[in-house]
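User: For a reading group we're discussing how well predicted structures match intuition. Take PITH domain-containing protein. Before you show the prediction, I'll give you the sequence so everyone sees exactly what went in.
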Amino acid sequence: MAAESATAIPRGQVDLLDFIDFSGVECLNQSPSHSLSNAIKQGYREDDGLNLESDADEQLLINVPFNQVVKLHSIAIKGLEEEGPKTVKLFSNKEHMGFSNVNDYPPSDTIVLSPDTLKGKPVILKYVKFQNVRSLTIFIEDNQSDSEITKVQKIALFGTTTTIVLIVDCTAYTSSILHFVKP
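Assistant: Thanks. Here is the predicted 3D structure of PITH domain-containing protein, as structure tokens, for the group to look at:
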């Protein structure tokens, strides 16, 4: 379980907001009037008056795809002391999960948020488990006071992008060019 909280974003890490594929982001059990956009999108997530709220019970299941492969280092979740998330399970590259099968898979990491970390302080994750992340599923299992509604003011993901090097075999191509150029 990740327990170490960072006081500042580690050097070399960036906010991964620009690398989120918003066309594929989804949140199960969100209140229609208090959606995920309030907690994850730039401009909205900085406004403490806006939040993501659960609907039928305290649980939320969020899928965040990225537009390129990333290395996830830490997550910051801001919420209210009473209704903020408590147990958060993170799944790397497990797309299309639902409440019916979320417990069928072991999480890549589990964090238990305290009132201190709910102030938006980044929590360092098991970095080796988040090296080639194409999507992140966030399962908010419960909240601080076991109330029926969970409220999240901000979710921020920090890490780095990965660079893919493509090596092409040019031998056949070079040979055919040399053959063509001969007089």
